[in-house]
Amino acid sequence: ETYMNSVERLIHYSDKLEVEAENIIPDNRSPPGWPARGEIHIKNLEMKYGTDSPLVLKGISVDIMAGEKIGIVGRTGCGKSTLAMSFFRIIEPTSGSIIIDDVDISTIGLRDLRSNITIIPQDPVLFNGTISNLDPFNEHSDLELWDVLHRVHLTKISSLTTKKQSKVILSISDQKNNKQEPIMLDSPVKENGSNFSQGQQQLIAIARALIRHSKLIIMDEATASIDFKTDHLIQATVREEFKNSTVITIAHRLRTVIDYDRILVMEYVVEELAQLLNTIE
Fold first, then answer.
1. What is the pLDDT along the chain (281 residues), one digit of tens a residue?
2. Residue 39: which H helix or E strand, with range?
3. Which alpha helices (DSSP H) does 71-212 contain, by range?
4. Handedness of CA 142, 143, 144, 150 (dihedral sign)
5. Which positions are tagged coiled coil (predicted)?
6. Which one of 45, 92, 148, 257 is CB 3.0 to 4.6 Å from 210, fit for a cystine?
7. 261-278 burial, b for 16+ CB within 10 Å, e for fewer?
8. Distance from C-alpha of 60 to C-alpha of 266, rounded to nearest angstrom
9. Phi-psi region of 96 (alpha: psi -120 to 50; beta: other; left: phi over 0)
């Protein structure tokens, strides 16, 4: 009987689950370098999790200019993370559209979409490997990797003799043991980044976005489970390093987005899109 339950589930997964859209649509590829600006237009977006389920997002229309920093706040269950997932088409919209740099994202393949925008989630996915896995396809030099790690305040270069040096000792703050431990670019990263603190995992995720030169970054409650000091460091890094990129941050704390350009306050529908000063008042 136990085995038959397993067979039943396999049949359900193979026959009844909705299949995602195509990875690549040959006749409708995203333009080279897309998105180059990070300009977003959301028009009458509505989403729900099932045919008979109520709408989670209802009639959202928002225009976001290139390079803007937008904070999204609201109580649990109001649809903040659903809105974030909509940019990656994890869930397809019931109606409406999202247009990024003049491209309706529903018209391109999922690989073209997801490989060109960046999400920094609350729990970043870190695979078994090394620090240099920031660049899994070896598209960048070691010097570029050192640079982004240094820019996110994750490392201090303690030995740098030549650009050709392949193994440069770095020091990384081990917040768990309150000490500095020297590591190298080929030092191991354990599964799920278990040998790094939560804050360090977020900084590694930010470094990945930097090495990719992302023009659109989605942060989904990325700092919800870390202390205020680390939150402040991460937000300062985002503001400095992504000042020419569009950043959408779903915030657990209002102070996380206190100096963003605009705040999107959500209930089950959009209630207000206003300057932060007006929101606080």
1. 678 888 888 887 777 777 888 999 999 999 999 999 999 999 999 999 888 889 999 999 999 999 999 999 888 878 888 999 999 999 899 999 999 999 999 999 999 999 999 998 888 888 888 888 888 888 888 888 888 888 887 775 444 434 433 343 344 444 444 455 545 677 788 888 888 888 888 888 888 888 988 899 999 887 777 777 777 878 888 888 899 999 999 987 777 888 899 988 886 444 444 444 455 55
2. none
3. 80-86, 110-114, 142-151, 198-211
4. positive
5. none
6. 148
7. bbbbebeeebeebeebee
8. 10
9. left
Compute the distance between CA of residue 102 and CA of residue 118 in angstroms, rounded to an integer: 18
Q: Are strands 118-121 and 179-183 parallel, antiparallel or unpaired?
A: unpaired
What 3-state class would DSSP assign to 109? Answer: coil
106 neighbors 97 (Cβ within 8 angstroms): yes
Report which of 215, 249, 267, 245 is spatially closest to residue 60, judged by C-alpha positions.
267
What value, to the nearest 5°, has the Cα angle with vertex 138 and ends 132 and 141?
75
User: Residue 3: enclosing H or E segment and its boundaries?
Assistant: helix 2-15
CATH top class, domain 36-124+216-281:
alpha beta
Q: Where are the domains of the chain?
A: 36-124+216-281, 127-195
Burial of 192 (0-12, 13-18, 19+ CB in 10 A): middle
Retrieve residue 272's tokens: 């207000």
CB 222 within 8 A of CB 122: yes
Q: DSSP letters of 144-161?
A: HHHHHHHHTTSEEE----
Joined together, the tokens standing for residue 157 give 């270069």
